[in-house]
Amino acid sequence: MEDRILQTINKYNLIEFGDKIVLGVSGGPDSVCMLMVLNKLKEKLGFDIVVGHVNHGLRENAKLDEKYVLELTQKLGIKCFVCHANIEEEAKKQKRGIEETGRIIRYNFFEEILKQENANKIAIAHNSNDNVETIIMNIMRGSGTSGLKGIEPKNGIYIRPLIEIKRDDIEEYTKEFHPRHDESNDENEYTRNKIRNIVIPYIKSEFNPNILDTITRLSSISKEEGEYLELKTKEAYQRMLIEENEQIILDLKKFNSEELVIRKRIILYSINRLFGSTKGIEKIHIDDIIKLCSNNIGNKHLTPNKNTKIVIKNKQINIISVKC
C-alpha cells in the first residue's frame, strides 16, 4: 500500500520536501489509511503532518468517531484539531443541502488549521471508487467532457494521495486499525450513495465486473486529452489577445478562424481569467456568444449573466465585467 501511494505522490508531484500537510481524518477506512501511510512516509520524503477532524453533530456515533481519531493521533504523536459543528442548523441558516454545508464547513476548518500551523497543503482521502462515482454523477447531470476527468489528484492546495487506490484494498489494509464505520453511507438517501450501493453493483453483476477499471481508464484518457486542449486553448488565446485588464479584448477575425471546440474553450477560459470562475455560464450562453461572433456584425452585445457582458465592436470581442 505504501509503495502504491508513493507512486501516486511521485506521479502527480503531490508532496515535496519541507511540506506541512493538514490531513482531513474522519476515522473511516479511507482517512485512516491516508494517515497511517503518510505517517510512515513523512521521514522518507521530508514532510510534516497535522490532523483535522470535524464532528458534524449528525450521527449518534459521531462522538465515538472523534474519540477514535483523538486516541489514534495521540498514539502516533500527531497534533489533532477538532471542530464541533451543527450541520443541520447551519444548512437551514445558509439555505443549503446538508452535504454541501458539511463540505463547506470541513474545508473552511482545514484551511483555518493550514493558516494557524503554517502548513501549505491539505490532504483529502478520496479514493478510486469516489472518482468513479463522481464521474457517473457528472454524466447523469449532463456534464461535458471535463466531467469525465473526475476528481483531480491535485487542485491548488488540496492533494488526494489515495485517488488511485480502490476501496476494497483500503479496507483490507486498515483492518488491523479497526477504523470507524459511517452508517449513513449504507443509506440510499443521497445520489452518491445510490450510485455506490445500487448502480455500480448492478453494472458489475449484469454488464461489466471491471466497471471501476473501465471508467478509471476513461477518466485517464479524458485528462490527457483535456490537458492537450487546454494547452491549445492557451496558445490560441495568446494569439488573439489584444487587452487583458479590467476587461478582455480579443481579435474577432482570429477568434473566428479557430476550430469550434477551441472557440468554445476560449470563451470559458477568458471568462475564468476575468472572474476566476465560470459559474453561471452554461452551454446555451456559449452557443449564443459563438453565434454573435460568427455573424460579425458590429455594436452587438449579450449579457449571459448579471456580471458578464459580451460586446462585438471594431472587429473585436470585448468581455466586460459588469459592476452590480
Largest sheet: 6 strands, mixed
Distance between the termini: 52 Å
- Shape by Cα distribution: elongated
Overall structural class, as computed from helix and strand content, comes to alpha/beta
Q: How many β strands by DSSP? A: 11
Gyration radius from CA atoms, angstroms: 23 Å
Strand content: 15-25%
> Element order, helices and strands?
HEHEHEHHEHEEHHHEEHHHEEE
Question: Strands of the largest sheet, in order across it?
Answer: 3-2-1-4-6-5
- How much helix, percentage-wise, in residues? 40-55%
Nearest-integer average pLDDT: 92
Number of helices: 12
Low-confidence stretches: none
How would you sum up this structure, described in words?
The chain has 324 residues and is of the alpha/beta class. The chain is 52% helix and 16% strand. The protein has helices at residues 2-12, 29-45, 62-76, 87-94, 98-116, 128-140, 167-173, 191-206, 211-240, 252-256, 260-275, 283-295, and strands at 20-24, 48-55, 80-84, 121-123, 154-155, 158-159, 241-244, 247-251, 300-305, 308-313, 316-321. The protein has a six-stranded mixed β-sheet with strand order 3-2-1-4-6-5, sandwiched between helices. Strands 7-8-11-10-9 form a five-stranded antiparallel β-sheet. A hairpin with a 2-residue loop joins strand 7 (241-244) and strand 8 (247-251). The mean pLDDT is 92.
